[in-house]
Prior knowledge:
This is DUF4304 domain-containing protein. The protein is an alpha+beta fold. The chain has helices spanning 2-15, 111-128; strands at 19-21, 24-28, 33-40, 46-54, 59-60, 66-67, 81-84, 94-95.
Amino acid sequence: MDKALKQLVVPLLRTLGFQGSYPHFRRMQNEQIDLLSFSFSRFGGEFSAELAICPVDGFRYHSGKLVPPEKVTAFNILSERTSLRNPAHSSENFVFGKPSFEPNYDVALPRQYYEHIATQLKEQMSAQLSEPFRIRSRASGV
């Protein structure tokens, strides 16, 4: 799955103005930084594409610690964050295999299977990521 994402999705992110390295990407805007991070389940078989925004000067924790703009990731942000949803499944994650606690979880599927999932994500990103992110706060629901 990593290989398919790197070959098919990362080039699109570059054309959309994102910088960074897999799995964390940033796009500087006039009034915010758009963040995108890939997260794989610790049990295997699925991943999510997390979207977040933060101020252009980075993210400051309640403790006062500042994460600078070139280091901030979607995982630093708790309230201004959402996920791209997989249209083929009811969960928000993109499922590409069995979890590690199921038999035969480590059997690889054909390359085209992973490329199909990456292509679904790429199409969704093409439609949704061309503009600056507009994310509702998880904390306030606004």
